[in-house]
């Protein structure tokens, strides 16, 4: 049995039939009209002119002439003329489906003129031998019918085509008609035909979130295990976290792991320009979900419809989004106990969601998917490098320590960028420097070595970046420096890369040291050149925000006191009243200015005390354009803490396995589970300092 026969048998066994395409009907009708247009329903015959007709009359080859509708003359030849060689081409000519043997046709113009010319032509012949001219009036019913039917069919064909396009395309099924616009647009992934190949092994980090999600899947697989004691299965799970942390990827892993139907839909799919469509789609979605219970419904970016009611700036009395939310609230609360339908939603703006949506009984659980820490970033690097060809000098621990504040999407971008850089440099394998260049590219932007910079500007940039590097090296709580460069990158004319300590809590001393380090560039310019430039714009913006946060959010001002004006709910967007008086506002401004002035004076003092080292660092920057932490250690010595003790740098693990294949990946992930969970604190982000 060949392959073709096997496929045919499989189709018969599966009971599958080829899908009928309505376009075949349109093509058939068009071909039929085309054929009918070429069929002669009248009498056939070739067109001739008056001269040829005269010749035929003079040779007595014409039997009779029939004038039809006072326009056309049908010419019938004699039997002798038809059988002769002269008219062999028209011998037996029967073009008409009616069977008439019209040999020739001729347009006569006017009847009087035609009759006069014919009489003049036959005046020498006897009357009995003259041609007999007959006059007939005929009606072409087929042409009349087609002239009416074709425009009507053409009109309805165009109307039906536009109607189908407006309703979303497709065949004659329910989802393609405009009357079904209220149907749900959710994609259904059943266990038989699912194409999702993502499982929990492809989701690195997020151990706590995966435990919660795995339990949700277990609820559906082994519901009796939880309900036999009287418990109820949670109705909704809300995934909350910053962009790029893997919320949607986690939902895909659930679809790949669960052996139940999985409905996937975006929050924006509910909202249309028609009134009532959103609520109708919510009803249809939950109707389908109940029919396929047990199942999981995933709504991505639920904040598109779940925004707190009454906060719409348009002040619309009949807001379609609110109607959709009301229907969603009704459907979620209308479930019977243990119905086997679980809602999973994802958002990065949980603070703007309606309280009725996040209450217990609807979204019973909130799973926070945060930015990965050091250990989780290593696991993410292992996942995204399993298909990459890595060189032996690639140690992923180094990259995981140099990317604090990176999300999973950022790390995936680093790995892809490293592969592109390696290919651009024609490397056979991705090297360590390719990864470092990729990290620099993502943090600071593309290098612009050909940007025109005057020697004076370059010297200013060198002392500016040198001021940042000097103070960050000498202050105990400032972030440790990785490297300094005066090569333009992105919008920055120079940059300093730091390796922030990963922490959850930040003290006042740490914030002040960071502010002093940020002001080091402006202070260095004033000390060495006696004037300042616009290069400190980014530094001043950062310092101002930090100072206001200290005073108004964290209560780190003695005069303002332990007061915080921070709105953690995020629902004060449309408030027109400040939460403090004008007197307090003046006090806040004075405290902020006082903090910044003190740190600026402190920065100038440190730089004056280390003017020699600052000069050496600036000269090395002008010479090499890039200076690393080892060079600063040579100039200023080892870094010391607040007690004067030398700060020991963390040593990187050199025996780290390289995840080239899936086996190394699983082995590394399993070995990480046995390590201690005591990890450094998390820092929010790493940014280059603009010049």
Written account of the structure:
With 691 residues, the protein is α/β, with parallel strands linked by helices. The chain has four domains: 46-139, name from scop; 181-368, P-loop containing nucleotide triphosphate hydrolases (Rossmann fold, 3-Layer(aba) Sandwich), CATH 3.40.50; 374-444 and 661-672, Helicase, Ruva Protein, domain 3; 455-567 and 578-636, Peptidase M41 (Methane Monooxygenase Hydroxylase, Chain G, domain 1, Up-down Bundle). Helix content is 45%, strand content 9%. The strands form three sheets. Strands 6-8-9-10-7-11 form a six-stranded mixed β-sheet. It has a five-stranded mixed β-sheet with strand order 1-4-3-2-5. A three-stranded antiparallel β-sheet has the order 13-12-14. A hairpin with a 3-residue loop joins strand 2 (62-68) and strand 3 (72-77). Helix 19 packs across helix 22 (582-609). It starts with a helix and ends in a 19-residue tail after the last helix.
Helical content stands at: 40-55%
**Low confidence ranges:** 1-7, 9-16, 91-99, 169-177, 651-691
Q: Strand order within the widest sheet?
A: 6-8-9-10-7-11
CATH superfamily of the largest domain: P-loop containing nucleotide triphosphate hydrolases
Radius of gyration: 43 Å
Q: How many structural domains in the coordinates? A: 4
CATH architecture of the largest domain: 3-Layer(aba) Sandwich
- Largest beta sheet, briefly? 6 strands, mixed
Mean pLDDT: 77
Give the overall silhouette. elongated
Q: In percent, how much strand structure appears in the residues? A: 5-15%
Quote the CATH topology of the largest domain.
Rossmann fold
- End-to-end separation: 75 Å
- What structural class do the secondary elements suggest? alpha/beta
CATH class of the largest domain: Alpha Beta
Number of helices: 25
Number of strands: 14
